[in-house]
Amino acid sequence: MLKQFKDLTEREILALAISSEEEDGRIYGEFADALRESYPATAHMFEGMREEEAVHRDRLLAMFRDRFGDRIPLIRRENVKGFIRRNPTWLVRPLGVNVARRQAEVMEMEAQRFYQKAIARTADASTRELLNRLADEERKHTQTAGDLEEKHLTLSAKAAEDASHQRLFLLQVVQPGLLGLMDGSISTLAPLFAAAFATHNSWDAFRVGLAASIGAGISMGFSESQSDDGSLTGRGSPWLRGAITGLMTMAGGLGHTLPFLIGNFHIATLVAIVVVGFELAAIAYIRHRYMDTPFLQATFQVVVGGFLVFLAGYLIGSS
């Protein structure tokens, strides 16, 4: 069970801040190592951010020892509800400068929100003062990450997007929508085509696909709405994200279910397979456009996954 942020004690809040600064420092160090050869100035900036995170950690450690002694409780971000679950993109080589910039902006935005929330939960004046100073410094880090974008992205790309709006759109709409579309488009293939090839009846296949799509949409919607309340991450209303994920999951499944309203089974199956191809292409494009995944890599991953699920449905339905 994850702990609610509102239930943390001041001792636990300081311990969480210490572990968070340590983790962020390690990540910035990985960014610096990955970018040093191609972007030495950017690597130097991340190295400086790593050093600042170490200073933040030391100040927090001194405050903790002064108030609570040397024994620090083991509590990390993954133990508290409301933080982003981070994929280890900083371990990928080569690491693109725009990927590093986006990750840094999200990290600093989350850190700033964390300190602002922590201030409201802290009664000790000296601790509140320290947290206020750290929140201000994290805000400066966010501006530094924005400067990185201006330095390394082309003018045409900069003119085409507003960084802040793009980040929020990615967090609040694209990520939950893509999650739902992938799950709905791929996970419903097996039950739908298993029913189709088992019965050779379009109406039976349609009813199975409809049930699978609606069920998956409800499940994914509730799962996303409970995963993160958005208070620390800026990802917006959990119910809005849940609705986006649920509706996109349902849409992904209904796309290749609707062709089975065609009475002729063979035509319906052919149309459904064509629709599946368009769905997988759309997923690959979205991953390439918004998630910085190479298009061929995204296409290969999605097509292979979709084919394996389709094959499982075909084999089960034909047995």
What descriptors fit this protein?
Ferritin; 11 helices; 0% strand; single chain; 319 residues; mainly alpha
What does the model show?
This protein has 2 domains: 5-160, Ferritin, CATH 1.20.1260.10; 163-318, no CATH class. Helix content is 76%, strand content 0%. The protein contains 11 helices and no strands. The protein has helices at residues 10-35, 40-68, 97-120, 125-152, 155-160, 163-187, 189-199, 202-227, 238-255, 265-290, 295-318. The two termini are 42 Å apart. Residues 152-162 have low confidence and may be disordered.
Short description:
The chain has 319 residues and is mainly alpha-helical.
Question: What average pLDDT do the residues reach?
Answer: 81
CATH class call of the largest domain: Mainly Alpha
- CATH topological fold name of the largest domain: Ferritin
What structural category do the secondary elements indicate? mainly alpha
Residue fraction in strands: under 5%
CATH architecture of the largest domain: Up-down Bundle
For this entry, what is the oligomeric state of its chains? single chain
Percent range of helical residues? over 70%
Count of separate structural domains: 2
Secondary structure tally: strands: 0
Uncertain runs are 152-162
Report the total helices. 11
Could you state the order of secondary-structure elements as H and E? HHHHHHHHHHH
Distance between the termini: 42 Å
Q: What's the name of the CATH homologous superfamily of the largest domain?
A: Ferritin, core subunit, four-helix bundle
Main beta sheet: none
Shape, please? elongated
Radius of gyration: 24 Å
